[in-house]
Amino acid sequence: MPAPSKATFLSSSDAVAHLASYQCLDGLSVKDLMDSRVHGGLTYNDFLMLPGKIDFPASDVITDTRITRNVVLRTPFMSSPMDTVTETEMAISLALLGGIGVIHHNQSPESQAAMVRAVKRHENGFITDPVVFSPNHTVADVLDIKARLGFCGIPITETGYMGTKLVGIVTSRDVQFESPETLLSEVMTKSLVTAPQGVTLAEANQILRSSKKGKLPIVDDQGRLTSLLARSDLLKNQNYPLASKDPDSKQLYAAAAVGTRPSDKERLKLLVEAGLDIVVLDSSQGNSIFQIDMIQWIKQTFPKLEVIAGNVVTREQAASLIAAGADALRVGMGSGSICITQEVMAVGRPQATAVFAVAEFASKFGIPVIADGGISNVGHIVKALSLGANAVMMGGLLAGTTEAPGEYFYHDGKRVKSYRGMGSLEAMEQGRPGVSGQANGKPGSTKHTPNLSSKPHENAATSRYFSESSAVKVAQGVSGDVQDKGSVKAFVPYLHVGVQHSLQDIGVRSVSELQAGVKEGRVRFEVRTPSAQLEGGVHGLHSYTKRLYA
Predict the structure, then answer these.
(1) Closest residue by Cα to residue 336 from 380, 256, 396, 416
(2) What's the rounded Cα separation, in Å, for the pair 6 and 332?
(3) Backbone angles phi, psi at 391, to 5 degrees
């Protein structure tokens, strides 16, 4: 019997060099993947990214991203302007964690402005417009500030205005057990620790540390109050190093949504007065003359205000809004978990295809893109970023957290919160006289909402879907509930670390490097068949427990 012939193999040392013999890298380029004539419209579940080489720790991955022309965040996370997702508590928490929350406008203008004001006052560097009282104010005035704004460390000047002589300060201890009618001149602390005008933030923080005071007034050479520094903000700097802050004022960024009706111009004026940094024009179909006119009016009236326009899913839609002056675009139509626009209206686009098409076009003009909808896990976030999105906007993923509006209740033995689409009939009825401001019959949160919010007001949901004048309301969303996810202060750090580990697997050190690698064809993709999607999930088990983080 003849001996088997010995196979001839290449030298192992030539393995890397031999890759050059292939005409292209393994997998697909993003252009090949997103060829609609071959693959049709794709969602995030329809493809995977191929792994690269790991030569750095996940903690080295930088997630900084530009969400508008002039605003950079440390993480690519935004919360949706929905009345069961983003109010004060969500906006503050997300900003502290490096993202930004967009406060919904399905409420009165005064209520929404109060929420914006609460975000701006939560954290500051040098506070240049602090609340100031005179000695003739009373303890009742201090208690009112504490109830409305959450603090009571207030400087006292001769006239009760900035720029006049500082004569004292009132803290919570000063007003404890005092009659509301008591004058502040009788209870204020007169022995003060101050810093001179011109002191640096670092120097002022050091004075706060050594003095162990809660507030540090900054005065000029004549003892007149010019600004204020708070110890609470120093602690927040230590606890939340990724916080989204204006580089000049050191205040948290505040974002809010408005519609495109004439009354929204008056609403926006109130929001700007409250300190708004970013306005989101909220519409299911952004390519309208109403939105174009609104963008142009905002740019003329408030030139420093950043405008996020949308929603769009095509290059043609994007072009209209870019030409009008938009600072960023929101991409998505019908891809949210509670949205039925594609089903009911037969209009929309699969989200992955929409993000790629709009981002590819908008990037030529330096306009960031926000992927809005269809995000249900860390992998979807990274896929959206790889297709050109600068950030993701999340609704259902953040609904059910402690910071989302509404109260927990039990449904089929599980602890849940209500979650509804802004195109649902329940959302469209919000604000009408005699209609409860509750989602799915469950009470909404009033923790940070003034009583004004319960007054009848124009409905944001009907304007978003162009339904104000329709006698019959056609729903483009549903109402439901989502399971308790705990606090965003645990959940968002999980998302952040998950993105870092995903980028490490891909072999890139930052979001910008990821997008450059995709554009240059170094980061590769693969289409997932239905059986591949089944294989990539949990399968073959009798039962299992799925814990995402600890």
Answers:
(1) 396
(2) 59
(3) -160, 165
pTM over 0.70: yes
Distance between CA 62 and CA 288 in Å, rounded?
Answer: 37
Residue 431 confidence (pLDDT) above 60: no
User: Pick the catalytic residue: 121, 330, 420, 464?
Assistant: 464
315 as an active site residue: the answer is no
- pLDDT at position 458 is 62
The predicted model gives 207-233 an average pLDDT of: 85
Which is catalytic among the residues 339, 349, 420, 524? Answer: 339
Q: Does the pLDDT of residue 79 top 80, yes or no? A: yes
Active site residue 524: no
pLDDT digits (tens, 9 = 90+) for 121-147: 776 667 777 889 999 999 999 988 888
User: Hunting for tokens 């011109």 — which residue is that?
Assistant: 198
Q: Which of 164, 161, 168 is nearest to 184 (CA)?
A: 168
Q: How confident is the model at residue 21 (pLDDT cuts 50, 70, 90)?
A: very high
* CB-based contact 329:300 (threshold 8 Å): no
Q: 3-class DSSP state for residue 372?
A: strand
**Tens-digit pLDDT profile for residues 394-428:** 998 999 899 998 888 888 888 888 887 666 566 66
163 Cβ contact partners less than 8 Å away, ≥ 6 residues apart:
224, 225, 226
288-315 pLDDT, tens digit per residue, is: 999 999 999 999 999 999 999 989 999 9
Q: HEC string of 269-328?
A: HHHHHCCCCEEEECCCCCCCHHHHHHHHHHHHHCCCCEEEEEEECCHHHHHHHHHHCCCE
Tell me the C-alpha distance between 350 and 422, whole Å. Answer: 20
Span 436-452, mean pLDDT? 38
Average pLDDT of the segment spanning 474-496: 83
Distance of CA 531 to the CA centre of its chain: 35
Nearest CA to 41 out of 257, 336, 349 is that of: 349
From residue 508, how far is each of 488, 514, 517 by CA, in Å?
Answer: 26, 6, 8
Q: With a cut of 60, say whether residue 214 has pLDDT above it.
A: yes
Contact of 64 with 507, CB cutoff 8 Å: no
Q: How many alpha carbons fall within 13 Å on the CB side of residue 172?
A: 7
Q: Alpha-carbon distance 403 to 392, whole Å?
A: 19
User: Is the bond into 287 cis (omega within 30 degrees of 0)?
Assistant: no
> What is the identity of the amino acid at 156?
I
Residue 13: C-alpha distances to residues 16, 17, 18, 444 (Å):
8, 8, 10, 66
